[in-house]
Amino acid sequence: xxxxxxxxxRLILRQLTQNDTEDLFEYFSQDxxxxxxxxxxxxxxxxxxxxxxxxxxxxxxxxxxxxALELKSEKKVIGTCGxxxxxxxxxxxxxxxxxxxxxxxxxxxxxxxLPILTFGFESMRLHRVDAFIDPANISSxxxxxxLNFQEEGTLKDYFFEKGKFVDATxxxxxxx
Length: 176
Hints:
Elements: E1 6-7, E2 11-15, H1 21-28, H2 31-34, H3 45-60, E3 65-71, E4 76-87, E5 92-99, H4 108-122, E6 128-133, H5 138-146, E7 150-161, E8 164-174
Parallel strand pairs: 5-6
Antiparallel strand pairs: 1-2, 2-3, 3-4, 4-5, 6-8, 7-8
Helix pairs in contact: 1-3
Domain N-acetyltransferase: 11-167
Keywords: Transferase
InterPro entries: Acyl_CoA_acyltransferase, GNAT_dom, N-acetyltransferase
């Protein structure tokens, strides 16, 4: 399967390439971006190369999709968004995303997620999309509720990240 390219008013959503390394390192190297992420803050551009390879390997194995969010006006990758933990037999997947802080609070992620959800429901045949967030991540909570995700509860000590157990609030969106 060829990686799907999606387009919005301000963004081209496409497969990541190694040419995106510096754009990803620019923001994955910031503690405020990684605060709620399950990885350590990137120290070298090789860390960015590895995550690009990881996302592309997951696609090649049929386990998910991770789109680069390329800003049309600058041809710059400002974030990524996509599906992981795709369970075809249960018609569900999890969504994940992150964005360069220079572009926070400008509705870029909502703009990107809308066509990604459409792709998930129509092309991947998803019935349900899950999102797990840190309960303290209010910006992510606001984003998900603006997209009609429903909060379904908090799972205590659900993930082990960065040497400690952390809670996860689960949000779900059902294709009706």
